[in-house]
Amino acid sequence: MRYITLKTTAGVGLSQNTADSYSAGVEAARGAVKKNTGPFPLAIVFITEQYDEEKAINGIRSIIGDTPLVGCTAPSLICNGKIYSDGLGVAIIQSETLKVSVGASDNLSQDAKTSGRQLGSLAADLSAPQGHPQHQVLLVFADASMTKGVLADALYEAFRELGSSFRFFGGGSADNLHFKKSVQVVNNEVHRDAIAGALIVSDSPQSISFRHGWEPTGRNLVVTKAEGKTVMELDGEPALKLYMEYLNEDIDGFDFSQFYGFASGHPLGIPMATGEYVVRDPLSASTGDSSITFVSEVPENAIVRIMTGSKESLLNASIEAADEAKAALGDNAPALILIADCVSRLLFLGDDAQTEISNIGTRLGEAVPMLGFFSFGEIGIEKGGPPALYNKTCGVYVLAE
Amino acid sequence: MDNQQQLAAAQNEILRLREEIKLSTDELQRTLTSVSVLYQISSELSDIDNKPQAVNTLVASICKMFAIDVGIIIELHEDGASYKAVESIGIPSADAPKIAGPIKGSIFEKIFVSGKPGRLKQPQTDELPEVVRQLSVQSALLVPISPKSQPKLLLLCCRMYQGEFSFEEERIINILGNKLAEKLDNILSQDEVAQSLSLVNATIEAMSEGVLVADSDWKIILSNEQYVTMWKVPQEIMDTRDVMKITEFVAPQLVDPPAFLKKVEELRANPESKTAEVFKLKNGSVFERISIPQRVKDKTVGRVWSFHDVTSIKQAEMQLETRVKEVEEINGFMIDRELKMVGLKKEIKELQERK
Q: Is the pLDDT confidence value at A167 over 60?
């Protein structure tokens, strides 16, 4: 008798029933499972802020049983090529060969290094030998709402634990910029101030690509004083003063309640030796000490440049990300697309954010199940080296059939 | 050449110049990026004061900036026969101790002997340590860190995706390797630090002065028994390591406590100031206090006080002053006497003249 291994497939379901979180969970999970019978090695969930996460999880689990579940809250989510500002999206993977381990580590803000090491130890649960990184990916969803810049430390420790045979993909969880809700989900548990992950070991390739579309402009600036996410000085001058002068803005007459909207078009870029720039998104400004706080950490002594971008350059970047992710699959067909797209791109692109998501679907196949979230910082190892914490970037993950 | 040919030639020349300008812009951009990376990593290194952290920082920064999947620092054993990894990034932490072996015939032998960087394209499976071989390495770069000093180190960088290392990358990583070597030469090892500290402590304890050293927050980081004895400070107050608490305890022993406290406050307000003062104690003792800022690399990081019991010196000075006064008085008396004699002689002479 010969057994045929079924190819890896996936389904994505959505509910916009904000009145009943349990029913929403049921509806989204049912939409993802459809008539498939499994085995289901992993389910992924993204939830906007309107829901009671515990009730929603109970609803999902009533359909998927004890299938490992991982996910987080998000300002908006992406389901099958469309953006939803309120909703609950579930992706479920059906595979006979995929190996998965999920887990979370709390106290991220207090002891980021231990949290990272614990997340990295997820690999110990999998008996897979050291393999090719295109077959071993850690999906990461971390609380990015804290003002302390600790996430980079946690990711680095996770990487040290796992080694280079794993790629990272994910993003920071948050709410709709109210900074009140940032939840990470693992199985039946709802975590806060945590880093959650799912380690996926596959026979088929998994591809990852990040692109942002921002270009450097003007001269180099040295970060002469910074702590975590806050930059106090640039070129030895008060950071905010120099930044506003550079952009020809009158600091005294400026309405700083509108700072995020203004600065979202003028992020900082940190050059890498590879010639690429890691972008840092200015989040808030303090006129008191003339500092600027960013979405992610900015290292002291970094040489940075102010970046510029257009809707066109951003849209082209997401197309490149999709094309590159597809190319990395070789002849394998995509089974599931996950997207971690920066929430600031949603704000910057406006209605064109939908074009960005549609473009990715078109490039990778409109029929391919797609789930994603607008993230507060994007996490990934794209081309090599330790995991990077991106801002204002579009990340695409594809699991092959 | 007709007009059309001239036009075509001119257009070709314009295209060529455009390409040249683009190339030089790209070159300039690459140079700027290299300078940025060098600056950032060198700055990170400059803030470090221990060897393992310096090694870790360099490897982590290089891996991050150059998108390198595996970075390992290999140390040659003192006997020159074997090697081991002293830092590794990109290898699972559980596997890192397995990177060790005999140097003879290994990929590292040539680098340690030549002291020059080397690059490997598509490394053969038997060239790299087993735990690295498992990672499907596409290219490797080996850079000596400290070819002229001990311990001998080299940096192994491996890429699984990004392809070969460019000459520019090799050049920059080599410069950074040299920076690490300089840094390691300038950092004392833990044994050397312990030895230096022991020497400092023994020296300070042997001093006749009472010594107190505080950090920038005015927390005591060093003191000697002589200080405690001079000021009779109870251990529980010393244990607080709080300069102000200790000052409050010693002030009542002085003849003029407010003046003493005022001086302390002045020092606190002026971290850069240097002072030398003498204080009288109620028990008759006299202490001299010298206070200077503690500086590390042109940065004030605290303050050092030394207290010298100058009671006997002051007493000797006072005795000397008394003797001087006595001599002056005798001298004055003698001069008085001479003047009186001169006066009397004058009077006698006048009387004789009248006669």
A: yes
